[in-house]
Design a protein that fits this description.
The chain is α+β, with helices and mostly antiparallel strands and 309 residues long. The protein has 2 domains: 160 residues, Beta-Lactamase, CATH 3.30.450.40; 117 residues, PAS domain (Beta-Lactamase). The protein is built from 10 helices and 11 strands. A 6-stranded antiparallel sheet has the order 3-2-1-6-5-4, with helices on both faces.
Length: 309
C-alpha cells in the first residue's frame, strides 16, 4: 500500500519522460560543485525503472532498471543514503554499475520528498573513487533535494492550471459553436458594443440578417442600415443603456446591404466586468415572409372578407 501511494504521488507530478528543464539541470550542477563529485542526477524511481529528469556528468543515459538502482535504497531509507565504497559493500559489489560503466564507488542520494511524505526519487551523486561527504556538504545536498521537491510540485500545479485553462477554452469554443448553430436555426443574431471604444462585434447570424459578408462594421456603419427616423431612437436607447442600465427593446425598420427592406427586433442590456462596460444583445428579423405578403397583395380584399379562396 505504501509503495502504491508513493507511485501514485510520482505519477501525479506528470514529470516522467518529460523534456530536460533548466531548473533541474541547475540543481545537478550545484550539487556536483558542492560535493566535488563528477556525476549528479535528479532520479525518479518508477515501478520498474529509475528515470533521470536531469543529469550532469553522465551523458546519453536517461534511465536504468530499478533492481540495480542505488536510488531505490535511498528512497527506502528516508534520509541521505551514502555508500562510501560500493565495491566493498555486499549489497552493491556485484552491481552492474559497479562492475562496469560508470564504475560507481562513492554514492550519495538525498530523497526528494513531496507532499504527503512520499519520496519519489533522489538528488544523487556518483564518483569512481571512494569518499565521504562532510556534514556541510550533506546539508547543502539536503537543501537542494528540498528545492527539487518544491520545483516538481510547482511544476505540476502549473501544468494542472494550463490543462484546466485549455479545457475551459475548449468548452467555451464548443459553447460558442453551439450558440451560433442555435442562433442560426432560430435566425437570431448577437451583437456586442464596447462602450469605452465604440467597437462593435456582430455574430455571423447578425451579418446574415443585414446581408453583410465582411467583418463586423463600425457603429457608424451599422447605424447606416437604419433610416434616419430609426437612428435617433437606437442611439438614445444605446446611451440610456450604457449610462443607466436601461434595457433595450426596439422594433425598427432596416435595410439590408442589397437594399431589401426588413423589420428587426433589437434587445440589449449592459454588462460591467473586468473587460469594462459593454452592451450585449440580440437582433432578429421579424419581417413577414415575402410569400404570404405576395399572396395577400394578389387576393381581392372583398374575397378575403368573404372568406373566399
Amino acid at each position: 500500500m505504501i509503495e502504491q501511494a508513493r507511485l501514485s504521488a510520482l505519477h501525479s507530478l506528470n514529470i516522467l519522460d518529460s523534456d530536460p528543464e533548466p531548473f533541474f539541470d541547475a540543481l545537478t550542477r550545484a550539487a556536483r560543485s558542492a560535493a566535488e563529485m563528477p556525476i549528479a542526477l535528479v532520479s525518479l524511481v518508477d515501478e520498474g525503472r529509475q528515470w533521470f529528469k536531469a543529469q550532469t556528468g553522465l551523458e546519453d543515459v536517461r534511465e536504468t532498471q530499478r533492481d540495480i538502482s542505488f536510488c531505490t535504497w535511498a528512497v527506502l531509507s528516508g534520509d541521505i543514503f551514502e555508500v562510501e565504497d560500493a565495491s566493498s559493500d555486499p549489497k552493491f559489489a556485484d552491481n552492474p554499475s559497479v562492475l562496469g560503466a560508470p564504475y560507481v564507488r562513492h554514492y550519495v542520494g538525498a530523497p526528494i520528498q513531496v507532499a504527503g511524505g512520499h519520496r519519489v526519487g533522489t538528488l544523487c551523486l556518483l564518483s569512481q573513487t571512494p569518499g565521504k561527504l562532510t556534514p556541510s556538504q550533506r546539508a547543502v545536498l539536503q537543501c537542494l533535494a528540498e528545492a527539487a521537491a518544491v520545483g516538481m510540485e510547482q511544476r505540476a500545479q502549473l501544468l494542472d492550471r494550463v490543462s484546466e485553462a485549455t479545457r475551459l477554452h475548449g468548452d467555451l469554443q464548443k459553447s460558442q459553436a453551439l450558440l451560433e448553430q442555435t442562433n442560426a436555426v432560430a435566425k437570431v443574431g448577437g451583437w456586442e458594443l464596447n462602450v469605452d471604444t465604440n467597437e462593435l462585434e456582430w455574430t455571423q447570424q447578425t451579418r446574415l440578417i443585414h446581408g453583410v459578408t465582411y467583418a463586423s462594421p463600425s457603429l457608424e456603419a451599422a447605424l447606416s442600415f437604419y433610416p434616419e427616423s430609426a437612428q435617433g431612437p437606437i442611439q438614445s436607447a444605446l446611451a440610456s443603456c450604457a449610462e443607466h442600465g436601461t434595457l433595450i427593446d426596439l422594433t425598427v425598420p432596416s435595410t439590408k446591404a442589397d437594399g431589401e427592406r426588413i423589420w428587426v427586433h433589437v434587445v440589449g442590456q449592459r454588462l460591467q466586468d473586468d473587460r469594462g462596460t459593454r452592451l450585449i444583445g440580440a437582433v432578429q428579423d421579424v419581417s413577414l415572409p415575402s410569400a404570404p405578403l405576395k399572396a395577400l397583395r394578389s387576393r381581392p380584399l372583398r374575397a378575403l372578407r368573404r372568406g373566399r379562396p
